[in-house]
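WARN retry 2 of 3 for item q-0093 after timeout on previous attempt; input resubmitted unchanged.
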Amino acid sequence: MKKKGEISTEMVVWIVIAILVLIIFVVLSIYLRAKGIGAIEFVKNIFRFGS
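OK item q-0093 returned
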């Protein structure tokens, strides 16, 4: 029986996954911010169809 305030192991796994995803997102956002306009132009070129 779980006591008050105890966290199950599967909940810890999901928390670790969420933290890793947040870290990856922050690192990518810093990297793309350093690239600046080049990243925006790259995304625009990806979604340009038929031109």
